[in-house]
Amino acid sequence: VAGDTSSHKMVGTNHRRSRTKFTEDQLKILINTFNQKPYPGYATKRKLALEINTEESRIQIWFQNRRARFGLQKRSGPETLESSQTHGQGQPVTEFQSREARRCRTIYSTSQLHTLIEAFMKNPYPGIDYREQLAKEIGVPESRVQIWFQNRRSRFHLQRKRELVSSEPEDQGKISEGLQGAEDTQNGTNFPSDSHSSRART
DNA sequence: CCTCTAACCTATTCATTAA
DNA sequence: TTAATGAATAGGTTAGAGG
């Protein structure tokens, strides 16, 4: 409540969205919820978003990160978490409700898809600014645009991998490593393949 | 410097919808 | 029933705010 999560807009070169700073109160609520349900459904996340005045997508990311960090590591926690059968008091739920409903599937129209695909061919890794612009343009939340790009990239990679396999008989592989060969390539068929592959280790 | 963690990524799986 | 694809997951990387 009363937290302004957005405000300034760092002009200039934005690629990522600016880092969200949660207040203690917000964190308290998030952590508390996490301890009870590390896998909240869409309804829960939306309610949380309203409660702490933060975008739902930030909450989704927060849960993802938290699970990765603490995961259901259970045991030896500072406190709480016993992952016991949980049903101390009358809360008969949790019997068969393992999974809460997820967000409804978004159905993109042909024209929306056309816009997305076109953008994808120009740049498969759009920054926050461009994603937001795109989102406004086709009338869907920015978070959906981001997911769309993720899925698209993954499937593109998968398809490419298959092509390699089919074009290359079994025992002979080894050329596959030539992924770094594609550099400039503004063609839609190739990925920059950099963006986060630059690894500098010693 | 170093730590912590939001933002982001890929790869895979789950789930819905159109054919 | 199946192919296509949106949503969720695990788990890893990048980068910004502080100590």
From TrEMBL:
Annotated Gene Ontology cellular component terms: nucleus
UniProt xrefs under SUPFAM superfamilies: Homeodomain-like
Molecular function per GO: DNA-binding transcription factor activity, RNA polymerase II-specific; RNA polymerase II transcription regulatory region sequence-specific DNA binding
InterPro entries, per database record: HD (IPR001356), Homeobox_regulator (IPR051306), Homeodomain-like_sf (IPR009057), HTH_motif (IPR000047)
Regions of compositional bias (Polar residues) in chain numbering: 81-96, 183-195
Annotated localization: Nucleus
UniProt keywords, alphabetically: DNA-binding, Homeobox, Nucleus, Repeat
Renumbered residue ranges of the record's region Disordered: 76-101, 160-202
Domain Homeobox positions: 13-73, 99-159
DNA-binding region listed in the record: 15-74, 101-160
Main location: nucleus
The protein's name: Double homeobox A
The organism of origin for this protein: Saimiri boliviensis boliviensis
Upper classification of the organism: Eukaryota, Metazoa, Chordata, Craniata, Vertebrata
